[in-house]
């Protein structure tokens, strides 16, 4: 089993080793949590001389056996000789403590070089040794020893001298990585997720559960038995925990364990004793209750309860619990009935319940229902449509690996063209969401094979692909697919909503004056009737038509009415950010990023749009080193996804930041890159780089090139008019104007901005005016204008531009030690790695955490310590 680095714990050990005062630390955790692995890794990484003592439980009956092993490991003849002669006159506490003091005096007299003593399973030593070591642990100064131990728990008072640090279970991402390593690279990704979610974050459970799978289960060809049988490593641990419960609580716990979730009322009824027993379970942390739904908190305890029952008892209890279910609200009746001899008859009900659970954000429970259905009927003789609906529901949640797992189990005996096209559309939609690349061959093959027999299905598929291309401003491909979709729409005699959405998207991206805007009046009833994807497309159109408040309203409908449609919500968050940036409301834009980061991460894959959002977020907070690293990721992902929209926006954001810093050569390079990357669409209002390019070229002494860009802007102003382009042209004319004409043109541009622009764009016009007035020698007027610009930027939330207009602000310098005290343990680890010069990807690899986790923690660190960038943080720490 591979080692998953516990960075915080290893850092604690390293800091203890570096301490001149010595000390003692103990890591506690359940069996299998990785204590021995931690000790082994600490031994390998230690910069001090280190020794590892592994306790032999068979010697626990021999007094002082553990103590002797520890002293023998010191590898100093004097210490070994002393330990061999050491005896206790009595096991009375006073005598033991006196002997421990003698030991400490002897150790101080030896003048040992620093030594890190690692003791694995200290709590399994003989009691006298534990008492001696525990007493010495708080008095190691001057001995040269640093002691780090592991134990399941600290049950004795004499161990309190150790500083305790509990080992937390692995995160889902860490568990999934470990499962993947155990099952191999060819393992079904859905199987990996199912195993990781039910491992309890325990590495030993992962190892034993993975080894219990058959090759067909690993490959996703055979259903899993859920709940999984408890690994032998956890049976004894679970038995000890269950033994603390009252008989009534144990009985209720067994009933809760019979299903992935249960209805509180049906489990307890009006029985006061069972109600109290459920309260006991809740208070003890055995169960979670949300509303009227109860489930076991620990999947390993659930497995233990479930499989500890005799088979006939389990079967009888399933039958009794099934009888309690009634009405449409009951989601577990089919589950319990499936364990009866006639369980095959409820496969359709199991899959229907699985889809409903998924839509209710209960995907873990839904997976158990689906796996149960596959166990009963592996071929899904008559229920392939139910499995297809379930896979589609998972895809909508963003659970793409699970969706692919179950979609692969849909095998229709003699499928119709409509069934084939629906399957193809779902499969292609999953692939689009996973790779962000259109599988062109698959689309064309599906349409050519089945489109003539199901023209409406072909139109739906082709419209989806067209909208996907429009979203990345690839209008040529979008129009090609929509034209083909139109032929099938004509043949079908019916227009799907997706076709209308795709056509509107193309018009909005193109931005020609001949395109009429969508209806200005937004009826709440009409919005409620739209699908989540139609809402997202509608909001995109509104955003591109500069109707930002209305776009914000539509996006909020997605967030409010579709809380579990995580895949669509991811697109909506990206759109919401772009909408607020285009509106010039940076405060709202930053809030969007914060809310987006609070969304569940397991259901969203990283993509170029998200990397772009994090780049903008870091740039506008002044975290430029962080932004540059995120920009590298965005470039990589945008190129892999063939997404010109993201790449053009990225160059514009970076170019704007370079202009802010007056790095004019870099600004020209980046704006030119944005210009080249968006040359195929002509709609300058989408990229919004042209005004920056004019300003950067002019300030660089290249007015002829700037004038050429302005002439293109004027052409587009006639063909694709927009409020932003009117403002950009007015500002660019003033920037390019000769000194004698500039003041009047700037006055006109500012007046236009005051009437039509948001505060950010107004601030950009004012800061350009103020800089020009300063170069003209009009210092007083310049200072007044720049102060007004700073106020506008502050209102917009553009703090970096406000500082630029105010000519900067002082930097607060803090002592490095005081900085570290502001941070949590896990933040200190990351800060230290930044100080050493590691980049985010290297930090994520070093700590075995996700890149997103590193970014989030760094953002919090920057805010806590007042750092503006990675290099600034490193300088503060140094």
UniProtKB/TrEMBL annotation:
Source organism of this protein record: Herbiconiux flava
MF terms in GO: adenylate cyclase activity; ATP binding; DNA binding
Name of the protein in its database record: DNA-binding CsgD family transcriptional regulator
GO BP annotation list: regulation of DNA-templated transcription
Cited CDD domains: LuxR_C_like
This protein's record includes keyword Nucleotide-binding: yes
Keywords of the record: ATP-binding, DNA-binding, Nucleotide-binding
Entry keyword annotation includes Cell membrane: no
Domain HTH luxR-type: 813-878
Matching InterPro entries: AAA_16 (IPR041664), P-loop_NTPase (IPR027417), Sig_transdc_resp-reg_C-effctor (IPR016032), TPR-like_helical_dom_sf (IPR011990), Tscrpt_reg_LuxR_C (IPR000792), WH-like_DNA-bd_sf (IPR036388)
Cellular component terms (Gene Ontology): cytoplasm
């Amino acid at each position: 089993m591979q080692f998953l680095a516990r960075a915080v714990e290893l850092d604690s050990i390293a800091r203890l080793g570096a301490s001149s005062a010595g000390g003692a630390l103990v890591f506690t955790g359940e069996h299998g949590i990785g204590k021995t692995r931690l000790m082994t890794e600490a031994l390998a990484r230690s910069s001090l001389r280190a020794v590892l003592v592994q306790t032999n439980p068979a010697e626990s009956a021999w007094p002082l056996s553990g103590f002797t092993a520890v002293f023998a490991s010191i590898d100093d003849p004097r210490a070994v000789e002393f330990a061999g002669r050491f005896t206790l006159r009595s096991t009375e506490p006073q005598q033991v403590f006196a002997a421990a003091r003698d030991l400490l005096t002897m150790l101080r007299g030896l003048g040992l070089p620093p030594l890190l003593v690692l003791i694995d399973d200290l709590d399994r030593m003989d009691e006298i040794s534990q008492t001696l070591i525990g007493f010495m642990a708080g008095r190691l100064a001057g001995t040269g020893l640093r002691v780090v131990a592991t134990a399941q728990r600290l049950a004795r008072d004499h161990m309190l001298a150790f500083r305790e640090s509990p080992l937390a279970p692995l995160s889902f991402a860490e568990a999934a990585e470990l499962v993947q390593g155990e099952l191999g690279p060819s393992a079904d990704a859905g199987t990996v997720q199912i195993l990781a979610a039910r491992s309890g974050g325990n590495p030993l459970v992962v190892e034993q559960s993975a080894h219990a799978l058959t090759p067909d289960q690993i490959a996703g060809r055979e259903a899993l038995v859920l709940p999984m049988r408890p690994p032998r490593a956890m049976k004894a641990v679970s038995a000890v925990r269950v033994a603390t419960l009252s008989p009534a609580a144990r009985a209720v716990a067994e009933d809760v364990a019979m299903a992935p979730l249960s209805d509180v009322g049906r489990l307890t009824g009006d029985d006061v004793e069972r109600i109290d027993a459920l309260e006991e379970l809740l208070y003890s942390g055995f169960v979670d209750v949300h509303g009227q739904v109860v489930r076991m908190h620990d999947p390993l305890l659930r497995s233990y309860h479930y499989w500890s029952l005799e088979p006939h008892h389990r079967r009888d209890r399933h039958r009794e619990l099934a009888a309690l279910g009634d009405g449409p609200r009951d989601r577990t009746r089919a589950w319990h009935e499936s364990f009866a001899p006639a369980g095959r008859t409820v496969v359709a009900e199991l899959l229907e319940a699985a889809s409903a659970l998924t839509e209710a954000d209960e995907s873990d429970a839904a997976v158990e229902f689906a796996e149960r259905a596959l166990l009963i009927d592996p071929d899904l003789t008559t229920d392939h449509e139910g499995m297809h609906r379930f896979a589609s529901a998972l895809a909508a949640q963003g659970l793409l690996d699970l969706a692919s797992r179950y979609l692969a189990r849909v095998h229709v005996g003699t499928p119709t063209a409509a069934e084939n096209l629906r399957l193809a559309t779902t499969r292609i939609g999953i692939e689009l969401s996973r790779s962000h690349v259109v599988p062109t061959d698959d689309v064309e093959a599906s349409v050519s094979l089945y489109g003539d027999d199901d023209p409406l299905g072909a139109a739906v598929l082709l419209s989806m692909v067209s909208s996907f291309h429009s979203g990345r401003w690839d209008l040529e491909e979008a129009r090609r697919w929509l034209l083909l979709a139109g032929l099938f729409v004509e043949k079908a005699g019916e227009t799907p909503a997706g076709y209308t959405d795709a056509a509107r998207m193309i018009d909005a991206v193109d931005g020609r004056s001949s395109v009429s805007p969508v209806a200005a009046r937004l009826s709440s009833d009409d919005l409620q009737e739209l699908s989540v994807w139609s809402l997202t497309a509608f909001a995109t159109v509104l955003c591109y038509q500069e109707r930002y408040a209305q776009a914000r309203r539509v996006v909020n409908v997605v967030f409010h009415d579709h809380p579990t449609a995580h895949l669509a919500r991811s697109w909506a968050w990206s759109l919401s950010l772009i909408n607020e940036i285009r509106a010039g409301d940076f405060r709202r834009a930053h809030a969007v990023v914060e809310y987006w980061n609070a969304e569940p991460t397991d259901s969203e894959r990283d993509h170029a749009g998200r990397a772009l959002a994090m780049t903008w977020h870091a740039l506008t907070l002044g975290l430029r080193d962080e932004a540059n690293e995120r920009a590298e990721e965005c470039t990589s992902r945008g190129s892999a996804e063939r997404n010109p929209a993201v790449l053009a926006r990225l160059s514009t954001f970076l170019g704007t930041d370079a202009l802010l810093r007056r790095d004019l050569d870099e600004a020209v390079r980046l704006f030119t890159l944005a210009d080249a990357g968006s040359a195929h669409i002509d709609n300058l209002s989408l990229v919004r780089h042209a005004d920056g390019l004019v300003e950067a070229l002019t300030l660089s002494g290249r007015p002829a090139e700037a004038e050429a860009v302005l002439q293109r802007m004027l052409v587009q102003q006639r063909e694709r008019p927009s409020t932003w382009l009117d403002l950009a042209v007015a500002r660019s004319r003033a920037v390019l104007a000769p000194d004698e004409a500039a003041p009047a043109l700037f006055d006109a541009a500012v007046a236009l901005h005051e009437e039509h622009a948001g505060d950010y764009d107004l601030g950009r016009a004012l800061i350009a005016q103020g800089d020009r007035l300063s170069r003209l020698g009009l210092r007083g007027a310049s200072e007044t204008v720049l102060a007004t610009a700073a106020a506008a930027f502050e209102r917009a939330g553009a703090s970096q531009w406000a500082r630029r207009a105010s000519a900067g602000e002082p930097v607060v310098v803090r002592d490095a030690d005081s900085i570290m005290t502001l941070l949590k343990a896990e933040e200190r680890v990351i800060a230290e790695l930044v100080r050493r010069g590691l980049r985010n990807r290297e930090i994520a690899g070093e700590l075995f955490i996700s890149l997103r986790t590193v970014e989030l923690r760094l953002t919090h660190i920057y805010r806590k310590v007042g750092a503006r960038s990675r290099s600034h943080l490193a300088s503060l720490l140094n």
